[in-house]
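Hi V.,

Quick status before I head out on leave. The structure for the redesign project is tokenized and pasted below; the design run finished overnight.
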């Protein structure tokens, strides 16, 4: 299935340069993917490159545009006629299978055109059954490990001090601002005694900042986990709804074929016995 970008897109643009088919472009409100160019990176990677770099996990398979691996690699070969895709090409359908190591396929040197030979038609591999084609729920949602800024040790802060005599500035650590401690200006050697109000303001400012930092970090992580859980639930529901619709359509076509077969008036078919008092 072609990949789509959901409304959670933050327009960061990280996905656009990763697409090997130039299928991603800036839309009116957010980035969009052209389904006629998207190959889900089949032939280049064993994953979808846009989904791998998306910071908000909004590059997801489109449940309304399901395509087989054979169709995707055929499109890739059409879009990249100068690329040699071997039979063991990389594909998200084969993710986890043993594959030979090596870089992604590179463009071949373009040779001068030759007389067109008789085209060789290569039969596409049979499509997998519907059950095998269904992706595992949540298998493609990989939450990247977030990297948060770490606050330095509380006593490592350099607190600026302005000398009231020479107007020079110097720094001190929080432990130097204990009540009654004497600070010496390195420029004019004038001393300054730390009073309780200075100690209180410095200690309160640092404590409030550290408490707010930790509180906002916990709130962010909680909100992110909830959004990820909601997103997985929506994907699971979409998948189940799609499978249910497929099963309904499959049953419908079977019933239609049966009605056609039963209603066919084949030559030599005996007429139904009619009642003696029946009309027609």
């Amino acid at each position: 299935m072609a990949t789509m970008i959901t409304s959670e897109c933050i327009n960061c643009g990280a996905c656009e340069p990763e697409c090997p088919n130039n299928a991603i472009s800036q839309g009116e409100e957010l980035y969009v993917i052209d389904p006629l160019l998207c190959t889900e990176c089949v032939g280049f990677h064993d994953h979808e490159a846009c989904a791998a770099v998306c910071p908000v996990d909004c590059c997801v398979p489109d449940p309304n545009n399901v395509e087989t691996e054979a169709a995707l690699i055929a499109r890739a070969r059409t879009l990249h006629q100068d690329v040699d895709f071997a039979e063991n090409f990389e594909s998200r359908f084969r993710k986890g299978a043993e594959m030979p190591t090596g870089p992604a396929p590179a463009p071949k040197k373009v040779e001068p055109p030759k007389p067109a030979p008789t085209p060789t038609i290569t039969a596409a591999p049979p499509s997998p059954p519907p059950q095998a084609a269904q992706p595992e729920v949540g298998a493609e949602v990989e939450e990247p490990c977030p990297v948060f800024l770490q606050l330095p040790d509380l006593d490592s802060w350099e607190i600026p001090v302005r000398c009231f005599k020479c107007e020079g500035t110097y720094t001190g650590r929080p432990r130097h601002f204990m009540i009654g401690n004497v600070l010496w200006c390195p420029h004019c050697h004038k001393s300054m005694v730390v009073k309780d109000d200075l100690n209180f303001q410095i200690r309160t400012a640092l404590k409030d900042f550290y408490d707010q930092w930790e509180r906002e970090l916990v709130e962010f992580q909680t909100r992110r986990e909830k959004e990820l859980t909601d997103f997985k639930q929506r994907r699971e529901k979409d998948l189940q709804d799609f499978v249910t619709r497929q099963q309904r359509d499959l049953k419908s076509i079977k019933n239609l074929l049966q009605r056609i077969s039963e209603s066919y008036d084949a030559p030599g078919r005996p007429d139904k016995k009619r009642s003696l008092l029946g009309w027609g």
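Above is the designed sequence. The longest strand covers residues 159-162.

G. will cover questions while I'm gone.

Best,
W.
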